[in-house]
Design brief:
With 306 residues, this protein is of the alpha/beta class. The chain is built from 11 helices and 8 strands.
Length: 306
């Protein structure tokens, strides 16, 4: 019996020690454990199928199309003898100045705008629309970003309307939108009388804040809810447009837009090889974009950048 008592006491002491060891081990495990974050809730489906009050707005240059639409259009106009080599050299110099300066100087912008409008002055709108169709096939069709095209198609497949919004002439933008099967386009409007360009603009180039105003106006006319709409652009110049929709996307963004998008938790998409900056163009494509029907100021080699 004495032996049994000794065994019982040993078992009791062992149990207390086990409890102490277990508690100590548990505490150590708790302190050293790797915290596994709770799984994120899945993002809601987007675009929302059947939401008729939602639409998508896409910038054109370097967002939908590689390079500037006006540059490609200018190549086509030069090929068709709309302007001479001397004018081409002048536009190229203006383009280079914009790229090096990196600012939108009003005097230079006005110079580009006036030169470009003078080239299309006196030409019929129908003439440049026909030429625009040819130039799209020659220079533009193979320069559409497949990734951005897929984004636009997702909105169309969801039953939503999709619009281009660009400083390029509205005629040029309309041709591209129709060829891509989009709803339509907002672009810079040049004055015409009796179907002939006068060499003047209606208002100003559709650039920066003007894009946001155009989107607001179209949304009001079409009964859209901007908080349910999406906008896509590569340029910090389009922050005003991106800021008025509920779903802003930075696509192939320049440095400033990339920074802004990260600070505001905007979604990013980059379809460029190696995420190269692709800094081709001028910061004032708006000035170049002021040309109706795709003017030769496009030959200013590239758009507003950046």
């Amino acid at each position: 019996m004495a032996a049994l008592g000794w065994f019982t006491r040993r078992r009791h002491l062992a149990t207390e020690a086990s409890v102490l060891a277990g508690e100590a081990s548990a505490e150590a495990a708790r302190k050293s454990s790797v915290q596994v974050p709770a799984p994120k809730a899945p993002e809601p489906e987007f675009p929302v199928v059947g939401d008729e009050r939602a639409a998508a707005f896409f910038d054109l240059d370097n967002t939908v199309m590689q390079g500037a639409a006006l540059f490609h259009f200018g190549r086509g106009l030069y090929k068709r003898h709309f302007f001479r080599k001397r004018e081409l050299a002048r536009f190229a110099w203006q383009q280079t100045w914009f790229r090096l300066a990196g600012v939108e100087d009003p005097a230079h912008m006005e110079d580009v705008r006036s030169s470009a409008l003078s080239i299309v002055k006196g030409h019929r709108v129908s003439e440049l629309m026909t030429i625009g169709e040819e130039i799209y096939d020659e220079y533009m069709a193979d320069r559409i970003w497949p990734g951005t095209r897929a984004l636009a198609q997702a909105h169309l497949d969801a039953g939503q309307r999709v619009w281009l919004v660009t400083a390029a002439p509205v005629e040029t933008a309309t041709i591209i939108a129709r060829r891509l099967g989009l709803t339509g386009a907002l672009g810079t409007v040049a004055e015409s009388v009796g179907g002939v360009y006068t060499g003047k603009l209606v208002g100003e180039p559709l650039h920066g804040p003007a894009k946001a105003e155009a989107v607001r106006a179209l949304a009001a006319a079409e009964g859209l809810d901007l908080s349910r709409c999406a906008a896509y652009s590569d340029s910090s110049n389009d922050i005003p447009m991106l800021s008025i929709v509920g779903h802003p996307y930075a696509v192939n963004p320049d440095g400033r837009l990339r920074k802004h998008a990260r600070e505001h938790s905007w979604r990013l998409r980059d379809y460029r090889t190696g995420r190269k900056a692709a800094k081709i163009g001028i910061p004032a494509a708006a000035g170049v974009g002021a040309v109706a029907g795709g003017t030769a100021a496009a030959v200013a080699l590239h758009r507003r950048r950046r």
